[in-house]
Structures are given as structure tokens and as C-alpha cells.
Fold this sequence. Notes:
The complex is a heterotrimer.
Chain A: H1 26-34, E1 39-41, E2 55-57, H2 62-74, E3 79-82, E4 99-102, E5 109-113, E6 118-122, H3 127-135, E7 139-140, H4 152-158, H5 165-168, H6 171-174, E8 175-181, E9 187-191, H7 203-207, E10 216-223, E11 225-226, E12 230-238, H8 244-248, E13 259-264, E14 271-278, H9 282-293, E15 298-300, E16 362-363, E17 387-392, H10 398-411, E18 418-422, E19 427-432, H11 438-453, E20 458-463, H12 466-469, H13 481-491
Parallel strand pairs in A: 2-4, 3-4
Antiparallel strand pairs in A: 1-2, 5-6, 6-10, 7-11, 8-9, 8-10, 12-14, 12-15, 12-16, 13-14, 13-18, 17-19, 17-20, 18-19
Chain B: H1 3-7, H2 20-25, H3 32-43, H4 50-57, H5 64-68, H6 75-89, H7 94-104, H8 110-115, H9 117-137, H10 139-147, E1 160-161, E2 169-174, H11 178-182, H12 184-196, E3 199-202, H13 212-215, H14 220-237, E4 241-244, H15 247-254, H16 256-259, H17 264-272, E5 274-277, H18 278-285, E6 296-300, H19 304-307, H20 314-321, E7 326-330, H21 344-347, H22 349-366, E8 370-373, H23 376-388, E9 395-397, H24 398-406, H25 412-415
Parallel strand pairs in B: 2-3, 2-4, 4-5, 6-7, 6-8, 8-9
Antiparallel strand pairs in B: 1-3
Chain C: H1 3-16, E1 21-22, H2 25-29, E2 45-47, H3 52-65, E3 69-72, E4 89-92, E5 99-103, E6 108-111, H4 117-124, E7 129-130, H5 143-149, H6 156-159, E8 166-172, E9 178-182, H7 190-194, E10 203-210, E11 212-213, E12 217-225, H8 228-240, E13 247-252, H9 253-263, E14 273-281, H10 283-299, E15 304-308, H11 311-322, H12 324-327, E16 334-337, H13 347-361, E17 364-370, E18 375-382, H14 389-406, H15 425-428, H16 431-444, H17 474-477
Parallel strand pairs in C: 2-4, 3-4
Antiparallel strand pairs in C: 1-2, 5-6, 6-10, 7-11, 8-9, 8-10, 12-14, 12-15, 13-14, 13-17, 16-18, 17-18
Amino acid sequence: MPPPNPPTPSTPSDPPDLSDSPGFPGPSGDALVASGVTIREAGSDDAVAGVTPRWVALPESTEEVAAVMRAAAEHDLAVVTAGSGTKLHWGPPPTRCDLMVDTCCLNEILEHVAGDLVVRVQAGVTVEALAAALAGAGQQLALDVPIEGATIGGTLATATAGPRRLRYGTARDLLIGITVVLADGTIARSGGKVVKNVAGYDLGKLFTGSQGTLGVITEATFRLHPLPAARAWVTATVPDLAGLPGLAAVAASQLEPSALEVDRPGPRAPLTVTALIEGVAADERAKATADLMGPTATITPTPPNWWSHLPTDHPTPPGTNLPPEPQIAASPDLPLAHRVPPGTDPERQAPPGTNPPPEAPVPLGEEAPPLEPRVPSEPHVADGEGFLMELRVPPGAVVRAFAAVGRAAEEAGGIAVHVRGSLASAVLHLALPPDTTAPAAETFVAALRSGVAADGGRLVVWTAPPDAAARLDRWGPVGAASLMRRVRERFDPEGRMSPGRLDVGPPPAANHGA
Amino acid sequence: MDPELIKDCVHCGFCLPACPTYTLWGEEMDSPRGRIHLMKQHVEGTPLTPEMAGHFDACLGCMACVTACPSGVKYDVLIESARAEVERVHERPPADRAFRALVFSLFPYPRRLRALRLPLRLAERITPRLRPLLERLDPRLAAMAELAPPVARPIWLPPRIAARGRRRAVVGMLTGCVQAEFFPRVNAATARVLAMEGCDVVIPPGQGCCGALSVHSGRAEEAARFARRTIETFERAGVDTVIVNAAGCGSSTKEYAELLSADPAWAGRAGALRFLDFAEFLAELGPAAERHPLPMTVAYHDACHLAHAQGIRAQPRALLGAVPGLELREVPDAAMCCGSAGTYNLFQPEAARELGDRKAEQVLTVGADLLVSANPGCTMQIASAARRHGEHVQVAHTAEVLDASLRALSPKTLTRPPKPSTPRSDPSLEPAPIPASGPALDPASGPGPGRGDAGTGTVGGERAR
Amino acid sequence: MTPALAGLAGRLKTILGPGGVITDPVRLRTYECDGLAYHRATPAIVVLPETTEQVAAVVRACDETGTPFVARGSGTGLSGGALPRTDGVLIVTSRMRRIIEIDVAGRRAVVEPGVTNLAITEAARPYGYYYAPDPSSQQICSIGGNVAENSGGAHCLKYGFTVNHVLAIELVAPDGEIVRLDAADPGYDLLGAFIGSEGTLGIATKITVRLSRAPEVVTTLLAAFRDVEAGGRAVSAIIGAGIVPAAIEMMDALAIEAAEAAVRCDYPPGAGAVLIVELDGPSAEVAHQFAQVDRICRDCEAFELRVADDPAERAAIWKGRKSAFAAVGRISPAYLVQDGVVPRTSLPAVLAGIEKLSARYGIRVANVFHAGDGNLHPLVLFDDTEEGAGERAERVSSEILDLCISHGGSITGEHGVGVDKSRYMPKMFTAEDLDTMQLVRCAFDPKGLSNPGKIFPTPRLCGEVPGVRKGVHPLVASGEAEQF
């Protein structure tokens, strides 16, 4: 067993070799220009987690990406791929970065056969642009992306997903074909444009979550879903963890919620849980869901304002995270086991004629409102200044995970950790206050990792201020670390693709294979 | 081993989960698909090796694979021809030969079985002490001793019993060898139920073995001999429908025409006789007699030779389910063999024991008052497996349950261990349609104190006749 | 057996005990093929391990002696994926069949690879859960084999494939190392890449699967049409209406005839095509969708509709469909099964093309297919005693795959490539595509010992992948790998 790869220190790469490029273009720049692809000199706005490349290539097709990559290979240039840059600051900085391949001009929807429920797009198409185009046909890519403006390529490379992962899975589950360009310029495709296909290795899976270290994703083909006829959100609040299992049970019900999300602004704050019900009988099922979720449950035609947002992007101050105004009473015939708030009459919460009728779920179709119409009301934490972490545990361990977060926050001196994410799939995003000290963050991460270790939990530190980032193991132990390294060495033997951005370490030998 | 029949197998593997030995050992060559492959090797020229013979011997012949096969492969025909080939060309080790000879000279002969009664009664008392010794000597002998059912008091059945009420049919009845000797109450109950349902029941005396044990062990000639004798017996009795209450006998009698196909005259005579399972016949006949309530829970065990070989699953369940107050429960993994399989538990005691343990465990999870099956081997096997684990499973034949219902007996007569009984008929037991029998023919098996109490493996509580 | 293999067999016996190693030639031959009996090779040694550690020890022994090995579950695959190597070891997982854990709260189960697909569902059923992927062979196919082939099933239209339902895998890598791949791991989705790799990247020894909640309601509808074309229109209309049924299956007249012959499924007489549509989910949703499907089928001139709501009635409807493969044996002495996929909108054109091929070569083709996802299972019928019929059937079969590829489809939707279809891979993928896939293979299995000869027609050795890469490979430089 090779020694674990230590977390890469975030030392920026050496300054560009001036003998090679006394000025733009220089020999390697010449080669890039000679590839026929639009090349520009990079500026500080192009920095990747603090590391500024020398050039930016703006290819418009897979072939152009290949041409640029061949030129980069000839001149040993380290390459980072960027989409719209929404997550470029996630993860450790590259150890070298000469060329940025910007996919902004790979922005065509290449093929959409509505009858096949399949779409083929270039990697630079944004999720929003794709959604708008598909909505015309009453279809959707059933993938919630927690950051606005993200491209398809970036979403795949970072494997981000949102609330509806519960019903539809994540990008890897919806991706049916992929085109990539490897470090040496080789164009490779796998999968195809049929949903059912087991011919050959699935390179799409491999590139999902690859953080740009295996090659450049240039095209992707997805299976689509019909837009649901209607949607309704059911929200309930519980004061503490004791109430969480009851709400989590919604995921195990036969009501088939499309999503079940949780938001807790601080370790001692109440927990808000929202279920999304989609489909032809959404209103009816939403009522049944509300019955299950207890007396505080309310049904709304729009999501709560934190829905499908990262806690860092839209931190909700404690106390303001109240559920929206009730639109409809919870179940009129609550089982006795449910607590009825004092002063309420469970029999007569919504007498006909006195209250407005329950608002119908929003019918969706061509004039459907976008799923995330909200503008964050809080100031956005600047890139690289805040802490964003992702905690994954088995769904059966989600309550223990919340408890572990609380204990770790306590151990780190009482940090106000904001937790938000999927209650049913047990993928939780954590935001720490930006002023958390590096040692406190380090204590928190170590304590939380050990707190969820017994359940097989994983904690990834996506963003952290530079001083903390230098001390943190971004990935935690990964059982497949050595296989991942071997795969990367095969795809990129010279280590030129986003070097240092995904150096995961194996678990300690004792736990190995457990 | 007809190559054309072998070719029908497309190697899909659907038979694997149904096969008891595959379930036990997880080996391809101990699965139906693997055994067919071995047959294929043999017909293509590979000599019959001891390994090959071992894998054929290990087959229980439960025919669950025949049920599971989507391609209609006739594994039943194939394995019987493979067994015949093994008997023909394979030289078994001397100890095996001796043991097999013992079994085949004993079981198909009711009189010899009867002669065993005394030693068996002795064995009942000494088995616990004898067992370790036998186990060391030969596990097969130990298995034989352990499986031996408690000795039952014989019940004499008259050659003809008249239908009660309007006569709806005249049927013959096969008494069988093991059934007749060890489970006489089952035969009595069968005859009574048939009569109460409006059948004249003809029971020719001097019936021998139907040939089931022989044909299932590759002894085709011996089987044919038994078959011819059975056919003759019922021809002489003047019936064309014969009711069989033991699953193994039922499946082999139904195959007489094939067994005797080499001789067209005999095949024709076989074809003229209609052998029917007890439950199959009653379901076809429809109920006439009144069913009285039997408030109890019953788990029904599918005997392989009934469910798989004869495809009779629904009929016994329907008969039992129609008894008022009787709650029928399914045993998990019902299609799996209990390991008894005719002589299998004698020749392959370890595998049989393991399968018996599994089956008993599943039967016990059902928590029923009574386990009902249509095969004496199955009930002996499951009861003795349960006994090994200190549990008690009360067993009965479908006929006994119906008999109790038709005669308005208490469920306790089925679940209580048998009491010492007197040979005389008790007038309070009416309606007992069978003419009162005299004392048992065999003086050795006359009534004796405590004899009937030994039984846990047999139907309890049914009073004489 | 060569002395080297005899030596290996001895070593394996010390690992597994004599009962876990098969070397008798007669016994070995029963392992010569999987569900695709057309390809045969008798393995040199068969082993029946019972634990992960035993598998790892066997694989290490193979690695150290340079012996190829092939994993096999229940041996039901239809692409020859478990075809043994005559010079290698066949590692059979049929004794690794413990269900280790049913975690109801976490909606997952942990099982060994030899556990059958259906056994997981049966273990989960008392809790109201089931394992969603349901290949037709679910009562016997092993979950390890499902992982290797990324198996689907009739219900994968709505619920996806094995890869969408496996959460973690413990595997023995081709060098004998025990590795855990977990969906929660950051970085490359190696779990996803491993699933469907047909045993070429290692052997799964422990599998964590997702359990799905049994739907509240399941309704199955059988619609009979005069011809396949009308049935096809109904499929398009159902999908076009925004409905994702749990399954949409179609059978043509010849397939119906075979099923009737085998199981007397009693489909409506005179049907040129039957469509089976299964809807499941919350009752309110199913009721609404059922009304839509019912109307659509009538609009598309279905002349008879049957509806089943309880398990027995549903089983009666599915009986004909599920028996279809084995049933064609009743109307034809021999047959080939294909597994091509086409975009759903190309179905009419491809079916017409198949009809033309059938006429041109004088070979009957029965069609059974997963209409919802365009996965065709043409059954190419021929008489193997007739001169040249086998060759013509092969040609029809092969041209059907060409037809699928030309419509932007795939050569295999669920059976896998195995040995059977590896020769078609270059028609579907470029040399660059295949070389890139080989990079994954070389990362996991640089010596090429794990199920060699499958998927890829003529794989390059791991040292000779072309391209403009420069310099000595770091693994070669460090002595960790050999170039050969």
C-alpha cells in the first residue's frame, strides 16, 4: 500500500516559465494559437482557487478542444477546465495551471428528440438555458443544481445535485452518453443516446465527480423526464432532533415524495423539513403527506426560500426561517398520537367557506414558473471566503449525523453550523461562519469525521478561507484512493489535468476494506 | 438418456433455485442443469465415472426443477434413465451394494415390513443408546433407525366398502406398503372419506408395492414387475379408477404406461386404468357429505411427488380450505423438498437431514396446530427433524383431516398423541362407515399398553378405525 | 493440466479446503458455459469460495502465477460473460449467498454476491420494501452477476438499472487487494464504472443495495392490437402524454404464438401485437394515469383491453411475456436472441427493417421488446438441422445489430457484450473510444488477468496504448507495473 497522499498544500504553481513565453503568445502560446482556437491571455479574474493561468482557450467544438489539448500536450501545459466558474473555487487549488479551457462557447443544444426523451448538449450550456429549451416540449432534465448559472460540464465534473436526487438520482443517474477529450487530445465517447445501454465501460460515470483531472467533458447526453403536471411543497418544523425521525418517515411512505429536504440554521435551532410532491394527483398526495408530517405541516404552491440552495449561498438567519404562511390546514383528522398545538381545534381548522380554498398546486407546462425563482436575500459569501462542507451518511444514520454535527460544533468552541440538504438521501451541506478560526475548523472537521465514521460517513470540505484550507484534509479517507490514483495516472500520465485538485488519501490501514 | 430430451435444455438455469442439492451445496454438477450436462457428456461418449454416478445418486428426484423449467425439459424421464444407466453399468462399493440390497428387499414387501415390527418396537426403546454406535458404523443405518415410525396398530380394511348415501362412483384403493404398515389410520380415513362422499371403495387384498421405490432408484425391471402385478390386481377387482393416497405411489402409478411402453399389450392395460390422487379425485368429484367445523390452524406441506410430479397443489388446499373453521397457512419456500424423497433419506442421510432441518425450521415458523401432507415419507422426515431439535410437529394426512371434519370429530383427535386404544369399536364413534374390523390380523401387533403413545411422528388421537 | 496449474490447484486447496476446489474433468465440464451455451470452454480449475478473504487469496494466487480468472455467479448470463478460460480459474460465488443485513431505516441491504436478485426482494418484502431491478431471470440470477452486467429488467424504464440501485461494493481487485467503493466517496464514480464492467475490473464480494418502497398500487393492462404498428403508436402516445409507466412491453404475433404454445397464456385471439403496460405508485396518480392509458389504447384501435389489479391477475398477464424466451423453443428447434436498443422513435423503422431482413433470408423473427426504452429482443428462429440455416440466422442477427447502430442505438441493452458481441464493439465505438476504455482496464488490471477476452475485441496490452503521451509511464518507472 503506497503512503497516503497528503493533502496538497495550496501553493500556487511556479510563475510561468518566461524563457518559454517572453510575452504572449511565445512558443507554447504560438502553438495554442496555431490550433486555430480562440486564445486570450488570462487575467486575475481567471484565477482558479487563487492560481492564475497564463492563457484561456475558448473552443467551440469537441474538435477544437482536442486541438487545444494536443497543443497543450506538446508543450507540457497544465490545464484546468472551467464552465461558468460557479464552483471553480471548490476544492484545493491546482498545483500548476497554464491553460484554462473555458467551455463558455460550447453552448449548443445539439439534439433534442422529444419523443425519445433524450437531449444531447455541449458542456458549456447552462442548466437554466437547457431547462428553458426543454420546457417548450414539456420536458425537463430532472436535476436540481444548487447554484445558479452552472454549466452542464461543471455540474458533471463536480457531481452536484439537489433536492430531487431522491426521486431521479443525480447527474450520474441521468447521464447516458458522454464525449470527453483526454490530456493528449484523444476524443473518446461512451454510452450513446439510448437510455438502456450496457456496451462498454461507462466513462460518463468515471468523469462524474472527476474535478477536471481526467480530461475535458465536451458533450453530454441525458435522459429526460416529462414535466410534472403539478407540484406542491409540504413543510413542517420540529424543535429538535427528537422530531426528525417522524418526518424522515415520509421518505419511506408510499406517497413517493420527489424530495425531502431539511434546513437547520444552527445547532440548537429548530429543524424545518419540506417534502416536494409532484405529479398528477399532487394536491391529494400533498394532503396525505401533511397528515404524516404532523400538526405543523403546511402546503404551499412554491418552495420555501432556502429550497435547492446551498447554506453558504443563502444563509437564513436563525429565527427568520419560519415556514411560509399556512395555505391549508394540516390533516383535519389527526391521529391522537400527534400533538395538537394548544388552542387549535383539529376538527375545524379549515371550515369550508370561511377560509380560502386550498391553493391548487401550480400547473406546470409552457408557462411554468422556473423552479428557483428566488433571489438570495442575504449577501453572498465571496468565493473562497466561507466554509462549505458536504456530509454524506447512510439514510438510516441521518439523525445521528445531525447529533454528530452538534457535538463537533460544540467541541470546536460552539460554532454556529448551518445544515441544509436532503433528509431522505442523507446528503447534507454545512456552512460554518466565515469568521471561524482555522484551528476551530480543523477541530470541527476532525471531530465530525470521527463522529460519523462508525456509520461510514464522509465529509468533504469544498471551500474554506485560505488559512484554514491549508490545514484541512479536504477529502477525508477514501477506500478507493489507490484505484483512483491509478485511473488518473492512466488517463493523465503526465499529471497535467487540474493537478492537485483531487488528491484523495486512503483510509488508515486498520479500517481498510472495512 | 435420450439426446433429444437433453437438447431441450437451453441452459437458462431457472431450475437452480428449485433444486434442493444446489441449495445445499451451490455446485453446478449437483443442479438439474449440471446433471443434464453430465448426461450429455455421457451420451457423447464420456464413460460413467463414479463422480457422475454420485451426482445422479444425490438427486432427490423431487422434480421441483420440472415445475420450474420454462422450456418443458423432461428431467423426470431423464433422471430415471440416468439412474437405470447407473444401476446397469456402475459398480458400487460393497457396503453401498449391501445397504441398497437391504432396502430394496425390505420396503416394497409389506409382509417383510410387517416382520420388522417387533425389532422396530425394540429399537424404539434402544435407539437413543444405539444411535452413536450406528452413526459410527454407518450413518445410513442410524438414519433408518431414526426415521422408523412408531409402530402402529394395524387396521383391517374389508375388500369392499359401500358408499354412504347415493352412490356416485366405484373406485379402487391402493393401500401401498409403507402407508399400509406404518400409517394404517391414513388408509382407514381415506376409505371412510371416499365412502362418505358416495363411493363404493374396492380394496383388493394382497396388494403389493406399486413399484415407486424401484422406479425412482433406477430399478426399472423390478418396477415393471410390481407395476404389472398392481395392474392385474385392480383389473381383477373390476375397477377402472384407482385412488392413491401416497404421493410417491401416485406419481409412479400414473407413469405405468410409459414404464411398460416396451410391451404394447401391457401399456394398453396400464392406459385403461386411471390412477388418481385422493385430493385430485375428490376435487373432481365435488363435495357431497357435510363438512363439520374443525377450528384449528393447518400448515400444508407440498409433497414433491404430488406438487411437482403430479402438479397437484390447489386441490388439497381447496379441500382443506373448505373445512369450516380451519385456517390454512402456507409454509415458506413451500416448493423445496423436505429431503425424504422415497429412499433418499436412507441412501443420502446427511443431505436429507440437512434438508429436513431446514424444512422443519420453516414449518415451525408457521406456528400451526397441525402439519398436513399427502406423503408418509414427508411427515416422518419433518417430524423426526423437529424431534432432533427438541420440537414437536403434529402431522396428519389430508384424508385424516377430512375424515375428522366429515365425522364431526374434535380437532383434538388430530393433535393429541394417540391413546392406547381397544380393538373394539365404540358405538359413540359413529358415523364410522367402515364395517367394524375384527382384531388385528397380526398377533404381534395386537393392542398393548403404551404402544400408541410412542408416536409423535404420526397422526395422533384418531381412534381405532 | 500443466504442472503450473496443478501447483496452483494445490495452493487453492490449502486456501479453500478440498471441497472448495474442483479439478475432476467431468465436473469441470459442467461449468463450460453460462446461459449462452453457444460458447464453451472448460476451465482448468473451479473454486467455490465462501468469504471475501478466500476470494482475495485465490485472486492473489492467480496474480502471482499470472493465471487468468473469471468470476461466475449463477451462470445465467446471455452474452458469455462468464465463459471460462481453459488456462484459468473459474471463481464461482454460488456459496457466497448470505444476506448480511436488511437495514429498513436506511432502506438498504447488504448481501453477498451469490444471493439471487429475488432473494433480496423476498427478504425485504415483510418490511414493505423490494429490490427494484428485475431481470427476467430474477429468481436465479445472482446480484454479483447483476453488478457485472448492470442488469435491467422490465421495470427499468421507470426505476433504472443495477447501477442506480447499488450504493456500495466491496471488491477484490485483480491484484487481490480488497477495496470498498462507496457512492458517498468523493471523486471519480468508480462504483458506477465498476458496475457493468462484466467482471473485467475485479470481483464484487459484498454489495450494498438500495431497497425501494413497494408501491401503493400496481395496475397492469393488457391491450391487444391488430398489428405492431398500432401498438407502437400507442406506446408513443403514452410517452408523449408525459406518463412514465413502470413497464411497457410488446410482443408480436409470432412471439404470442410461441407463448401460447408453451404456457397457454390465453392472450386475445387474433392479436397481431399485445402491449403490457404496468403503472405503479400512489393510488391517486395511478388511477389518473390508467384512465389516460386506457383512452390512448382505445384511440389507437386496441380491440381488447384487460386490467389486472391483484397479483394473481397480474401474473396471468405477465405469464406469456415472461415465458417468451424459453417458449420459442416450442415453435422452433433453435434460435438466437438479440438485445439491440434503438431510440424509441426509431422503433417503427427498425421493426420494418427486421421484417425485410426476415423476408430476405427466409428466417422467421419473433419480436419481444421493452417498448418503453427501445430495447429489442428479436428471437431469430431457425432449424439447426437445415443446411445453412444457422449461418443465415447469424446474418440476420448481425444485420439487426447493424440496423440498431445505424439508428443511433446500441448493440446491447441489458445482456452485456461478453464474448458474444465483442466483435460488434468496433462498429459502435471508434478505436479511440475503445482505447480510452482500456485505460480504465489497465488501471484496475494491468496484467489483464480478470476475465480477459470479454467486451473488447482485441484489447491492446496495457503497455501499448497509442497516443501522444510522452516518457516512461510512472508506474513502469517506479517498478509497480511492467510493460508487456
